[in-house]
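can u do me a favor
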């Protein structure tokens, strides 16, 4: 399998939750898809909790706990939600085509909210840090 899009939304969500998803399929776009699915199915607050818990379990199952970043995870979910509120799409493929910069310019979007490097901050990895430049 070459892409997470080869899985239905239900298969993708289930495999990720069970830590059975092929790690090579879980790229940035797949992370955005997971956020889109959880927000669509469970609402923003529950999506944050679901993804935090599942992502921690996923990286732990791969013995790569150091790759998890709380601030980045929550920021990504909040950015997806922001664009979902403006979207006319009823599926992730259309959504990401409608807002391609979530995929192609994500670091730039993050930098518009944070005046410091949340990607490499140990504090940001462990705790959610609110944006210091502009709120989500």
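np, heres the sequence
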């Amino acid at each position: 399998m070459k892409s997470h899009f080869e899985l239905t939304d239900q298969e993708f969500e289930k495999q990720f939750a069970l830590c059975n998803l092929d790690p090579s399929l879980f790229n940035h776009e797949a992370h955005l898809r997971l956020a889109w699915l959880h927000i669509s199915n469970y609402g923003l607050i529950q999506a944050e909790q679901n993804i935090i818990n599942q992502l921690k379990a996923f990286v732990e199952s791969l013995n790569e706990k150091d790759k998890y970043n709380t601030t980045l995870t929550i920021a990504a979910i909040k950015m997806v939600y922001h664009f979902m509120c403006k979207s006319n799409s009823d599926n992730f493929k259309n959504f990401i085509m409608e807002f391609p910069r979530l995929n192609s310019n994500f670091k730039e979007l993050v930098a518009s909210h944070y005046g410091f490097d949340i990607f490499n901050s140990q504090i940001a990895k462990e705790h959610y840090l609110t944006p210091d430049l502009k709120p989500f």
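The helical segments are 9-17, 28-42, 44-61, 70-84, 92-98, 101-104, 106-111, 122-126. hope that helps!!
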